[in-house]
Prior knowledge:
The chain is mostly helical. It has helices spanning 23-45, 53-75, 78-83, 86-89, 109-127, 131-155, 183-202, 205-209, 213-229, 247-269, and strands at residues 3-7, 12-16, 19-22, 92-95, 98-101, 168-172, 179-180. The strands form 3 sheets. A 3-stranded mixed β-sheet has the order 1-6-7, with no helix packed on it.
Amino acid sequence: MSAVLNWNVDPVIFMIADFPLKYYGALFASGLLLGYYIVRNIYKKENLSLDNFDNLLVYVIVGTILGARLGHCLFYEPDYFFKHPIEILLPIQNISGVYKFVGFKGLASHGGTIGVLIAITLYCKKYKVNFLWLLDRMAIGVPVTAAFIRLGNFMNSEIYGKPTNGNWGVVFQRDDLIPRHPTQLYEAFSYLLIFVILFWMYKSEKIKQANGLLFGSFLTLLFLARFLIEFSKENQESFENTMLINMGQILSIPFILIGLTLIVWKLKEKKEYVEI
Length: 276
């Protein structure tokens, strides 16, 4: 029995003058705000001061967008963007000698992660907040944001998977008529599951007190999920076709290793935390 979903949703919700409001942008912004409110509620439950907390959202937004954009340009299309540097941070493209608004085409989640880490480092330094302590709380909200971004990719009919056997999958009709793995949904559901796991872990006082353990678990779980799902995903750039593993997997490995290192370090430092 065939279980194929034909997907042909217009990625544009509506136009505001000449500016298209897309599902991707709306879901991206919604994910950021939802992640922010999750962490804010954690602050409230811990009876922590919210002074300067709202500034954290600004740091995270700037770090996410700049990091994700620079990550794509440097990791996936460096040759093109070194020749067209103005297009790195401006949503325009040179078409027949004329720059036209096209929106940002290319954001890399690994670059976004690096950008957020840099932004949080600056925030912690300015407002005297413990770095690993804050990352533990942020780690609970970030998977929800990541899930919303992948749902935006699904609405855009982009970053999809390899062909299935034809009896199941999603046909992204805006590109072709081949049933494919909906890897955007695989990632979105994986990230929501990771949110549930981390939130459950957070309820343990022993884990909560081991600064860095939640963040290490977040890095390990999220990027391991990304690494595995990449096996079912189409390569984003042609140069990846000759590689044993693709760029997304290569970039995931350091984060997995950092996460595992944090987990081992914290479990050795506080052996009693293992007894949940």
